[in-house]
Write a structure and sequence with these properties.
The protein is built from 13 helices and 13 strands. By secondary structure, it is of the alpha/beta class. About 40% of the residues are buried.
């Protein structure tokens, strides 16, 4: 891309040329909370309000919860509050249970809309386009708890592999793979691997510490606890346990072998994804596209520091789409355009 200020026509051509090169590489798809938010799945700010309104703790946990609530009301920042205030184990369980309840509520709304064809779902178009290559597998790495990636895989009529280590069926017990190859022995052609590094609303752990996947469970027996990695000091402890160790290992393999990265609503602020993504993008100069309503500072730093012209970030601007690259670290606006959104982006890039 030229460092000169291009015309709107040239800028659009440059963006779409870069987009096509990234898609041709069959990139690893990175889904962050911004992707799900675009489909009505609530994020951290609504979750903070939801927890304050719905969590009820016992008498023994009242003091810790009141301290937490006071700090959250003061900062309005759930992640920093979870890091600053140590909750009792029982209070943290209430946080996890209510987090799952809120995400599940939103997830099921999207599911209904998709079944009734009431909602456009461009992730399906992305998967369908990537499967037009010789590749039979698409890798998705996500920090999201919801099942939107799995729904897209179903709608594109491919197999979805999201329960590595879990047996098949309605009650899925966790068993460590014997070998790395055994992870995919039952895979059929056209498979979307979904590596959920922070857990899923389908995952639980029992009193025997054995993980379970229960894909059709709204309510669940009290002894079971949802397996979700929440922000805060316990985040790093939980991810050293199963099934997260296996899932993160498989995500690392996908990231380490990526020929490109296509990031949707990802904020570049997660230690389980960002280091390998950044290292591979910088060292091998593979193509990267980042779509977001608002690019986070971490994403902008990544683009500015990449030092090659195969990285592109797109965010919403008042009059269109603002594009970032190493040539335009401060951003340049393409007027009358919605290329920062996945649907319009794909319509233009794969037309």
């Amino acid at each position: 891309m030229s460092t000169d200020t291009p015309s709107a026509t040239q800028l659009r051509e440059d963006i779409l040329h870069h987009a096509q090169k990234c898609l041709e590489a069959v990139p690893v798809v990175i889904l962050g909370s911004g992707f799900s938010a675009a489909h009505g799945v609530r994020g951290m700010d609504p979750l903070a309000k939801y927890l304050l309104a719905n969590v009820q703790v016992g008498a023994a946990d009242q003091a810790a919860w009141q301290q937490f609530s006071a700090e959250l009301n003061r900062t309005r920042d759930l992640e920093s509050t979870l890091q600053a205030v140590t909750l009792t184990p029982a209070s943290l369980q209430h946080v996890v249970r209510n987090t799952r309840a809120m995400i599940l509520e939103d997830d099921l709304k999207v599911f209904r809309q998709l079944v009734l064809r009431e909602r456009a779902f461009p992730l399906v178009d992305l998967f369908a386009h990537l499967f037009r290559s010789t590749h039979q597998t698409i890798s998705v790495v996500t920090t999201n708890y919801d099942r939107l990636a799995e729904y897209a895989a179903n709608l594109v009529q491919s197999r979805v592999n999201t329960n590595v280590g879990f047996t098949d069926g309605y009650i899925r017990n966790f068993r460590l793979p014997v070998t790395a190859q055994s992870v995919h022995l039952s895979r059929q052609p056209r498979c979307v691997d979904v590596w959920k590094v922070h857990g899923s609303i389908d995952w639980f752990i029992g009193e025997d510490s054995n993980p379970l996947a229960l894909p059709f469970t709204n309510d669940y027996p009290t002894p079971l606890q949802p397996l979700l990695v929440t922000p805060g000091v316990t985040k790093y402890q939980i991810t050293h346990q199963e099934p997260f160790r296996t899932i993160i290992t498989q995500a690392d393999v996908a990231l380490a072998n990526a020929r490109g990265f296509f990031c949707i609503g990802y904020g570049f602020n997660d230690i389980h994804i960002e280091p390998k993504l950044v290292r591979r993008a910088v060292d091998l100069q593979i193509p990267v596209v980042i779509l977001a309503r608002t690019l986070r500072e971490g994403a902008k730093r990544f683009i500015a520091n990449c030092r090659h012209d195969r990285v592109l970030g797109l965010e919403r601007a008042d009059s269109g789409t603002r594009a970032f690259s190493t040539a335009w670290p401060g951003g340049i606006v393409l007027p009358d355009s919605s290329l920062w959104e996945l649907g319009p982006f794909l319509e233009a890039a794969i037309a």
